[in-house]
Amino acid sequence: MHCRVIAFLLPVVLLACAGGRREAERIAQPALQMDVDSVGSHSVWIDLKLVNAQKAWLWAVTGDLADKTAEQIRTNGKAFDAGLHLEYGVLQPSTDYILYACAEGENGRLGAVVKTTFQTWKGGLYAWEESRTKVPFFADMALLYGAAGRTPKYWSRDRLKSFVTWTDPDTGEEKWLFDAFLILEGRTSDYPPRSYAVGARDWSNPSIAMPAANQADALTFLDYWFNSENGLPALDALTGEAIARIGEPVAKTKIIVMMPDIAPRERYNVVGSSTTYWGKLQGVQTDFSQPAQRRAAYFWYVDEVRKRFAEAGFQHIELGGFYIMSEELPSTRSGVGGRGGDTVNGVLLDGWEVGYKAWDEVFPMVSDYIHRYRESVCWIPYRAAAGYRYWTEFGIDYAWMQPNYYWDTFGVNPMSSFFSEIARYNLAMELEFDDMMMPHPRDRQASEYTKEKDGKTVTETWEDYANRWRSYIEGMKSAGVYGVKPIAMYQDTDSFNHLRQSSDPVDNEAFHELCRLIANDPLKANNR
């Protein structure tokens, strides 16, 4: 741990009045309640409630223990209106502060002084962040799943090389492929597993949630990807070798790292499930019944990832951002009639189990923290998932929606409505496929081509999947998405390599068609 948060402070309430004054004067005395909500490296977030006041004055002081008067606070401090999650900055990292506050009422009358203490997190920008003026840009991102005991287990150099460059069979020219990679995983490898994503159901009892991953699980995930023989070090080395052959790419390859969902409870939808399941921060057991501690756990993880990138000393890849694992973000924003959602006091909310997931308590404050380091926030919702209309309000920079058409045996997810929705809400698109589109699938059984729904049974062939996959390619071009919006590619565990390694000419054609799409993406030219 390389930073400390003091965010477990009791509210400091001062409703003072001078003795001997008339009752009317006592009522008019301005006062405030101040709660320290959470702390970052350069800011403190607070809640303010004012009584008989129009504004509050705040002043954060370091190195001076002398008490301050209300007039000094007004002269030297900053004015704030009442409201939730007010941000006071810009502060110095790793510094002890005394925060003074006083309320101002009518005619400039000041209330009594309130004060509390906090310490900012260790901060500062790493070299790759210092070089940026905004969050990084990338055009084509491949999803790489690993750390849950999959087969193959590791992302070796041989397994990764097909994602780095591609040689055009028509011209013999070697070209760069993906300029970004999302590393992620859905669950832990032990049994019974714990989930990195809120929403997964327990394997033995689907009516309740799978236990949430904890702090140790988050470290296990990072250990897997930073292993010297695997993952990110292998990708960095492969990229360096490609540079020696074909020259520098337009920009360094960006790595997007998943943030394991931090749920309010260990089993998020079970009342009474533990809120202290996760681990400790600065030796203090976290309790996620307090939203500030949920956010503090995210802050810890973001800084842990950044520190590991700095220590790794990669030459050709760099951290480009963080990924929200939940594929839906239910919230208190207004819902969509007819699609379902929680209803509270007659108001339809956006999605189900809003109170259990409580994403409004986390984002966009965690996004703000990430943006301080000039890193991006990324998200891939399933089709029409809660939050897809409000993604920018969560502080998300890049959002690709899943069409879910590739597996659409029963025709409930037409591509035409998908493209109209992503255009309406300014979303990008995820390209989806797996071994089902191969004449001789390696990771699929014949029985999987037969599906049942509402008493209807349909059996398809690999050609049905291949045709739907081609609809993605054709649709993104005709809809004006290709070359304009970033692409995210979902390819199951290793289907991209299966296409590359196949001796079937159908697979070869599909592989080269996909690589040609990525290598020649006009959007890469914007990557500066």
Q: Which architecture of the largest domain per CATH? A: Alpha-Beta Barrel
Low-confidence stretches: 1-21
CATH topology of the largest domain: TIM Barrel
What class would the helix/strand composition place it in?
A: alpha/beta
Beta-strand content estimate: 15-25%
How many domains make up the 3D coordinates? 2
Largest sheet: 8 strands, parallel, barrel
C-alpha-based Rg, rounded: 26 Å
The shape is globular
Q: Please report the total strand number as a whole number.
A: 25
Residues in helices, as a percent range = 25-40%
- Total of DSSP H or I helical runs spanning 4+ residues: 13
Question: What is the straight-line distance between the termini?
Answer: 34 Å
Strand order of the largest sheet: 9-12-13-16-20-21-22-25
Average pLDDT level: 91
CATH class of the largest domain: Alpha Beta
Written description of the protein model:
This protein is of the alpha/beta class and 528 residues long. It is built from 13 helices and 25 strands. The chain folds into two domains: 12-119, Immunoglobulins (Immunoglobulin-like), CATH 2.60.40.10; 127-526, TIM Barrel, CATH 3.20.20. 26% of the residues lie in helices and 23% in strands. An eight-stranded parallel β-barrel has the order 9-12-13-16-20-21-22-25, surrounded by five helices. A four-stranded antiparallel beta sheet has the order 1-2-3-6, covered by helices on one side. The chain has a four-stranded antiparallel beta sheet with strand order 5-4-7-8, covered by helices on one side. Helix 7 (291-312) runs parallel beside helix 9 and helix 12 packs across helix 13. It is globular, with a radius of gyration of 26 Å. 43% of the residues are buried.
